Amino acid sequence: MKERLVIFDTTLRDGEQSPGASMTKEEKIRVARQLERMKVDVIEAGFAAASPGDFDAIHAIAETIKESTVCSLARANENDIRRAGEAIRPAAKGRIHTFIATSPIHMEKKLRMTPDQVVEQAVKAIGWAREYTDDVEFSAEDAGRSELDFLCRIFEAVIKAGATTINVPDTVGYNLPGQFAETIRQLVARVPGADKVVWSVHCHNDLGLAVANSLAAVLVGARQVECTINGLGERAGNASLEEVVMAVKTRADIFPVETGIDTTQIVPASKLVSQITGYPVQPNKAVVGANAFAHESGIHQDGVLKHRETYEIMRAEDVGWTQNKLVLGKHSGRNAFKTRLAELGIELAGDEALNAAFARFKELADKKHEIFDEDLQALVSDETVTPEDEHYKLVYSRVCSETGETPQAAVTLTVGGAERKASARGSGPVDATFQAIESVAASGSELLLYSVNAITTGTDAQGEVTVRLSRGGRIVNGNGADTDIVIASAKAYLNALNKLYSSGEKLNPQGDV
């Protein structure tokens, strides 16, 4: 029987550190539910000490998730660890993940601590964490550039102190697969007590090697991989969960391990995270890209038709590509709607929210006769992503766009409950709409990203728009969906403005594993 490879998902923590990828508490809970449905072993829900919002989200996820372990990151100081301990307290299974930097450059320039002080602080951190849980993970930040002898020393000390998982991060994505594998092999061989802990890796993708480094480590003894949906993460991202899992499954002849992941939930998870964060998946992305199982070449098409394995090493249905089938129509009832939302892991706050969402569903069904799971996700996002008390709200929009004429837009908004009207011209209908909104909002923000994606196929498909705004160092995403792309754009822009207006600013954690 093969050994278990623990899948540790950090989409909600490291993934959220991507610029503009901050999620609301409700969005984090939706993602966490999908991760649990996918049978992820450990969900790193956030960094409890980073902000009150992060603490609340971790606490809510700990109350919600029953099967997966819920984890909070914490620096190796008492305040961080106690905040993490309180945040995970409601969890059926909770973990504290504490870290401190171990590379010479980090210890000298960032921590300004001697190696002896770093070891002492790490041991103290394990002791504080064990007051809350027996499941304690220790990470040596920037292990990829740390001295091997010092790593052996600090890992031995934290194992004696009670750490149960030892994580070796390639924090800046500097290592090559052979080099990283040799580091893991030596650590497993040299550290006293190595057989008493789970060895973990957390690789960044700065050189495009995060997955390769992670898999190389698994071959020499690592039994936990830290990864994210779609490889989301700051800079070039993290190891991609879907690629790691499917590599292990597809090459079972090579890997002595297996995961417990329900791979049919991979594509739904990918689409949900992409929708919420506003980070689109490139079409040629492995496993979850739109073209991952598409065959354009006539030779390839002929081969696949004759025998699938000629050009396909995985089945599309095994990763969830068949799950966007028609599920509901205009004659579907409220109970069928509610049941399908539950199957998708979507829970609305009470009957009032359900009734509002159902009314929106009926409205959409009149415009678009075939309603897919992706449509439901987008429809409900308009309910859950938007702040409860919208400062800016779209009441009316009219756009005039003619060949040879400058497009014009007129909008009516409510601003703090008061109705305001404005009109503007622009280079296109969307630009004119944004100009009209800005003439009212006067937000002073900078538009960093405008992205449009068709949620499903067909000319009646909903358009899903992502708008990324920046103001005063704060970056937010706004999302909107509608069969009218200009209306979807206005919704997305106002959603971003509402996030900028809200006071729930997320503080960036100090440090990265």
Automatic annotation (TrEMBL):
The keyword Metal-binding applies. GO terms for molecular function: 2-isopropylmalate synthase activity; acetyl-CoA C-acetyltransferase activity; manganese ion binding. Keywords: Acyltransferase, Amino-acid biosynthesis, Branched-chain amino acid biosynthesis, Cytoplasm, Leucine biosynthesis, Manganese, Metal-binding, Transferase. The keyword Ligase does not apply. Pathway: Amino-acid biosynthesis; L-leucine biosynthesis; L-leucine from 3-methyl-2-oxobutanoate: step 1/4. One of its GO terms (cellular component) is cytosol. Residues 393-513 are annotated as: Regulatory domain. SUPFAM superfamilies: 2-isopropylmalate synthase LeuA, allosteric (dimerisation) domain, Aldolase. Pfam families: HCS_D2 (PF22617), HMGL-like (PF00682), LeuA_dimer (PF08502). Its cofactor is Mn(2+). It is an enzyme of class 2 (transferase). Its EC number is 2.3.3.13. Residues 5-267 form the Pyruvate carboxyltransferase domain. One of its GO terms (biological process) is L-leucine biosynthetic process. Mn(2+) binds at D14, H202, H204, N238. PANTHER family: 2-ISOPROPYLMALATE SYNTHASE 1, CHLOROPLASTIC-RELATED, HOMOCITRATE SYNTHASE-RELATED. Catalyzes the condensation of the acetyl group of acetyl-CoA with 3-methyl-2-oxobutanoate (2-ketoisovalerate) to form 3-carboxy-3-hydroxy-4-methylpentanoate (2-isopropylmalate). Belongs to the alpha-IPM synthase/homocitrate synthase family. LeuA type 1 subfamily. Homodimer. HAMAP family: LeuA_type1. This is 2-isopropylmalate synthase. The lineage of its organism: Bacteria, Pseudomonadati, Pseudomonadota, Betaproteobacteria, Rhodocyclales. The gene is leuA.
